[in-house]
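Q: Okay, next protein. This is Two-component system, OmpR family, response regulator PhoP from Marinobacterium iners DSM 11526. I've checked the sequence twice, so it should be correct. Can you predict the 3D structure?
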Amino acid sequence: MKALIVEDDADLRRQLCNLLEQRGYTIEQTGSGREALYLGQEYEYDIAVVDIGLPEMSGLDLIRQWREEGHTMPVLVLTARGDWQDKVEGLEAGADDYLAKPFHTEELLARLNALVRRASGHASPILRYGPLELDTAARVVSLNGTEVRLTSYEYRTLEYLMLNAGKTISKAELTEHLYHQDYDRDSNVLEVFIRRLRQKLDPDQSLQPITTVRGLGYRFALGGGSAA
């Protein structure tokens, strides 16, 4: 998942970036409301974390302008504890959820996970496809009740495809949303991840959930699964 962190407190911004990177997010970050506006206009993100008290442009004005321009990525706003007016104004500006500072990291991660799932049309943290299950909260994949060991990159690839089940996802989109800027975008590493995933998820060739759409990318099938 690709996240935009907008926080003018450099220490907190660094902590947020480190936390989300450890959880597999690809991060872009800024402490400026105006720069965040530009980033949101030029690039696609799966989620944004926005502090309300930003220099140059407030977090509320930032969110309002994003929404007026049709940008629909989920937004979690950070507010001062007990400042209920900020919470209400944030939601009215177009934010999807809020979190008061200081906060527990597990609550932040849970809220972000829920927002990403809901934006993809999934209410439950468990994504299912026949005997295959992916727990987005625990980051565990199982097949017929047995855990499937995946690398971090393999997990990210599978999660993104399952959250977007039924859609054709190009290699460029997968790379943009899942991997850091220093990732070799011209390599065939993504094809290796897909091949390994197919081997691990479909050892007897009976499930075949990931299909290749020639010249376009990959698609996770809808037929055998459910959006719980």
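A: Here is a summary of the prediction. The chain has eight helices and 13 strands. Confidence is low (pLDDT under 50) at residues 224-228.
Q: Noted. On to the next one.
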